[in-house]
Design goal:
About 35% of the residues lie in helices and about 15% in strands. The chain is globular, with a radius of gyration of 22 Å. It has 16 helices and 13 strands. Bound molecules: iron/sulfur cluster (SF4). Iron/sulfur cluster binds next to loops.
């Protein structure tokens, strides 16, 4: 600590961790490492592949812990690009303990011993905790806010995050969760989404997501985006891709960048803001390749690259971790720190979730360090409400961990409900963080119900 400050800013220059430290990748050349095809072909999908990469650096205890989680609790299957594994324990010897403690491992390779045994899930946790599916107006198209929609084009990603909020739809089924399936052929889905937008001129902002748009063949994505740009009332388009970090090699492919430049030029001609939104939770995930991918998108004419991280215990739940990440995003990778979400109330996520009070404290503690425009808002995505800045809570029962929120618009499923704008909507803190009286209350509720 310098000058008595609670945080010490230090520039963190990016370095690609040395992947040849992993026994399985000793002979991998820089050309292979930089190839999207090589990365995709070598994604880790199971324990055997993980063992093959890590060799004897990690002992059996870890693999057994991982296998136990996959059998009993995981809501997402394993899918990890080499790029992401390489950001775990990046600059010190890889050991079992170091891997256990690693923040990126903690959400990308969850193990059974991470999960809480007292309250693994909150009693109010649900598969589609934001009710996005309930608000589909066409397959994959969620119309929740009056002027904005979320367009889920597909249900896969190049990487699967343990805490994925769309765990009911995204990825392969796991023993704990059988996934919802998109029913329409992709072209029919796209047609239905575009048709809805043509008939709803009040929608001006489209988040094009999934899954991850990096898993859509570029020619299909380009065609969808050009059709979107032909809808006169659309003014903002945001492409959601965690792969900008998880598989930056994808976004560095020359053909794809040519295509992105064509889309960006059309957007510019039409006066539409085209941006990329990515999902980075820890400074260790930022490497020179990630910074190059962000810069390449900006050079192609995308107006902005922004980050929406998720606040999680053991990953980034300290002011220092958030500030390190934000300074690295802003200063080294030209990515705007934009949001941190509270981890949503999905099943088996209690060990990750942070209570609202802690999030308020973190928001307080990160103010004043970064440029104001690059100071992220920490938000709670309240079911049936939407994103609320954590200080917007109307009432907060700290003993039982229940916060109450209001909203100022109707979702598409509430047109006939007269109380929408006066009702208070509840959000729940993880029970293990409550005082003893609050924990007892929840235990009594559970046994009564
Ligand atoms: S990249 Fe996004 S959609 Fe895909 S698994 Fe991760 S959080 Fe879910």
């Amino acid at each position: 600590m310098s000058d008595g400050q609670p945080y010490e800013y230090q520039r963190r220059e990016l370095a690609e961790p040395d992947w040849t430290r992993f026994p399985g990748w000793r002979g991998v050349t820089a050309a292979d490492w930089g190839s999207a095809q090589w990365q995709r072909a070598h994604c880790l999908k199971n324990l055997d592949q993980l063992r093959a990469a890590l060799g004897d650096l990690v002992d059996d205890r870890f693999y057994a812990d991982l296998a136990a989680d996959q059998q009993a609790s995981a809501t997402m299957s394993m899918l990890l690009p080499p790029q992401m594994l390489n950001t775990m324990v990046p600059h010190s010897p890889m050991t079992t303990e170091a891997l256990y403690a690693d923040p990126v491992r903690r959400y990308m390779l969850p193990v059974a011993s991470d999960r809480r045994t007292d309250w693994p899930s909150h009693p109010h946790a649900t598969r589609d905790s934001l009710h996005e599916h309930d608000m589909w107006v066409a397959e994959g198209l969620t119309h929740r806010y009056p002027t904005k929609v979320l367009a889920e084009l597909l249900s896969t990603c190049p990487q699967y995050c343990g805490h994925c909020t769309r765990m009911d739809l995204v990825g392969n089924s796991t023993p704990a969760v059988s996934k919802l399936r998109l029913a329409l052929k992709p072209t029919d889905r796209y047609d239905a989404q575009i048709a809805y937008l043509r008939h709803h001129p009040q929608v001006r902002d489209v988040v094009v997501s999934g899954g991850d748009v990096a898993n859509i063949p570029w020619r299909h994505l380009e065609s969808y985006l050009l059709r979107l740009l032909a809808v006169e009332t659309v003014r903002d388009i945001r492409l959601a891709t965690k792969a900008l970090m998880g598989l930056p090699q994808h976004w560095l492919q020359p053909d794809l960048l040519d295509g992105l430049a064509r889309v960006a030029a059309t957007a510019r001609t039409r006066g539409v803001n085209l941006a990329i939104h990515t999902h980075i939770n820890h400074a260790n995930s930022l490497t020179p390749l990630v910074a190059r991918a962000a810069q390449a998108a900006l050079d192609a004419g995308v107006r902005d690259v922004r980050n929406q991280g998720v606040l999680m215990r053991g990953v980034n739940d300290s002011a220092a971790a958030l500030l390190d990440l934000c300074f690295t995003l802003q200063g080294e990778a030209n990515i705007l720190p934009y949001y941190f979400y509270l981890c949503d109330m999905i099943p088996n996520a209690e060990h990750w979730r942070v209570p609202v009070a802690a999030a308020q404290r973190l928001q307080h503690d990160i103010m004043g360090w970064l440029p104001g425009y690059a100071t992220p808002r920490i938000v709670c995505d309240v079911p049936f409400v939407g994103k609320r800045w954590v200080h917007m809570v109307t009432e907060y029962d700290r003993e039982h961990g229940i916060s109450y929120w209001t909203k100022n618009y109707r979702t598409t499923i509430e047109a006939g409900d007269p109380d929408v704008l006066t009702r208070r909507y509840a959000y729940y803190d993880p029970i293990d963080t409550l005082p003893a009286s609050g924990r007892r209350w929840w235990t009594k509720q559970a046994s009564a119900g």
